[in-house]
Design goal:
Blueprint lengths: L1 H5 L4 H32 L1 H25 L2 H10 L6 H21 L4 H6 L5 H16 L1 H15 L5 H23 L9 H23 L2 H7 L9 H35 L1 H37 L3 H28 L1 H6 L11 H35 L2 H25 L6 H24 L11
Helix pairs in contact: 2-3, 2-9, 2-13, 2-14, 3-5, 3-7, 3-8, 3-12, 3-13, 4-5, 4-8, 4-13, 5-8, 7-10, 8-10, 9-10, 12-13, 12-17, 13-14, 13-16, 14-16, 16-18, 17-18
Pfam family, one: MatE
Keywords: Antiport, Cell membrane, Ion transport, Membrane, Transmembrane, Transmembrane helix, Transport
Membrane topology: Multi-pass membrane protein
């Protein structure tokens, strides 16, 4: 371990690239977490509606997000191959992709009502779900632009600018969230509508900041970030060939999770609220580890650009050790201190009379979350490494098969036969991530990814 600390693609380099991304994702986690806390304090109905609506919105956004973020792999491989003049061209293919994607997401406004009718949730919760979903999907375009522009920095291993921009977004979003949900001074009390508007503001600020930071004369000289703005059919085709499976993979993953949440909502309001809280707490472990997932993609991408697959494998192991250490610590916190974490979501006044039952069930669910986080660390890192090497078709297939086979079909059957226990759906979720982790470890060790090339020779 001491040798790995200072070695090339070792712990130090992993932390140098990954820690700003972890902090960046942690800021996003804090935004999501405080949003749920404010809504939980506001009303149990708003809390119950927030997670299904947010997951449904991100379900549609996830496909476009999974494609757009793959620009980071192209940037990392061009950087590793010392083809800096191609970075701007790759970036612009992602931006051209964002335009129709944002319009498609905005058009989802018209299907919100019928979509949430399928959920079968109580009318009061369904109405709030529709409103929240519509606002979040309208902000999808700016979100995708911000993600794409951030790849200019993260793909080159310069992750501090990404961290600073996301910290600024969190610094604005959190107080705005509180004021718009609860009302403050001249700002009216908007409840879940305010939560959605604050989130869209948090989506838009990074896009504006990154635009000012990327399109500078200095970056134009080295990376052609302005002059390479034309559409390049061959490069766009290659980007979509590797990026689209990543989008489908992300969509299928979110589809399975969304289906899980909607099926839990059919069991009862207490079960839905407790599940929402448990998953919200899980974001404290999950989203920061996504930072290490991106770090694995960057380091593997740069090594593959240099045609150094052994360096890519070494980097993956370094990132895995760090991610496992963090997830194990968070899992221990969830088991040892469930009470204080759950109390953050207590609803104020008489509306919180049912919170005792929610808290008791939440304590049990956090034990599932603790096991889930450790296994998930393995899956997250290896998926990031495989994507960085261009093995996106495999990750798409394994997530699709696992999602349908472990989440969708079993949860549908449990609901069909009237199972009223919360344990069945959560065991399915745990099985899903276990299958995913094992499959990705086996695939990586077989080394198929070593012969894949995503950039021109």
């Amino acid at each position: 371990m001491l040798e790995r600390w200072g070695a090339k693609n070792g712990y130090r380099e992993s932390l140098k690239i990954g820690m700003p991304l972890v902090i960046s994702m942690l800021s996003s986690t804090v935004m999501t977490f405080t949003d749920r806390i404010f809504l939980g304090n506001y009303s149990l109905e708003a809390l119950g509606a927030s997670l299904p609506a947010a997951i449904a919105a991100f379900l549609f956004l996830s496909f476009f997000f999974g494609v757009a973020e793959y620009i980071g792999v192209f940037v990392s491989q061009y950087t590793g191959a010392l083809k800096h003049e191609r970075v701007g061209a790759a970036l612009w293919q992602g931006l051209w992709f964002c335009i129709p994607s944002g319009l498609i997401l905005a058009s989802l406004w018209f299907i919100a009502g019928p979509l949430f009718d399928l959920g079968g949730h109580p009318p009061a919760i369904r109405e709030l779900e529709v409103v929240y979903f519509r606002i979040l999907t309208l902000g999808g375009g700016p979100f995708l632009v911000g993600i794409t522009l951030s790849c200019f920095f993260s793909g080159r291993g310069m992750t501090k600018p990404v961290m600073l921009v996301n910290l600024a977004a969190a610094g604005i979003n959190i107080p705005l969230d509180y004021c718009l949900i609860n009302g403050s001074g001249p700002i009216p009390e908007l409840g879940i509508v305010g939560a959605g508007l604050a989130t869209v503001c948090g989506y838009t600020l990074p896009a504006v900041c990154f635009a000012f930071m990327v399109f500078t004369p200095e970056n134009e000289k080295c990376y052609r970030v302005r002059s390479a703005r034309r559409l390049e059919p061959e490069l766009l085709s290659r980007f979509l060939r590797f990026g689209l499976p990543g989008g489908v993979q992300f969509f299928l993953d979110m589809f399975g999770i969304s289906f899980f949440v909607f099926m839990v909502g059919r069991i009862g309001e207490i079960e839905l609220a407790a599940t929402n809280i448990a998953i919200s707490i899980d974001t404290l472990a999950f989203l920061p580890t996504i930072g290490m997932h991106i770090a694995a993609s960057i380091m593997v991408g740069q090594a593959m650009g240099k045609e150094e697959p052994e360096g890519a494998a070494y980097a993956t192991t370094s990132v895995l050790h760090l991610a496992l250490g963090y997830m194990a610590f968070m899992g221990l916190m969830f088991v040892v201190f469930p009470g204080p974490l759950l109390e953050l979501f207590r609803t104020r006044g008489e509306a919180g009379a049912d919170f005792g039952a929610v808290s008791a069930l939440g304590t049990v669910l956090l034990r599932y979350v603790a096991a889930f986080t450790v296994i998930d660390a393995v899956a997250i890192v290896y998926i990031g490494a495989l994507k960085g090497a261009g093995d996106t078709r495999f990750t798409m297939l394994i997530i699709g098969v696992s999602s349908i086979g472990c989440l969708v079909i079993p949860n549908f059957l449990l609901n069909w036969f009237g199972a009223a226990s919360i344990h069945g759906p959560w065991i399915c979720l745990l099985t899903y991530v276990l299958v995913l982790a094992i499959a990705c470890v086996v695939r990586f060790r077989r080394g198929v990814w070593r012969s894949i090339r995503i950039i021109e020779s």
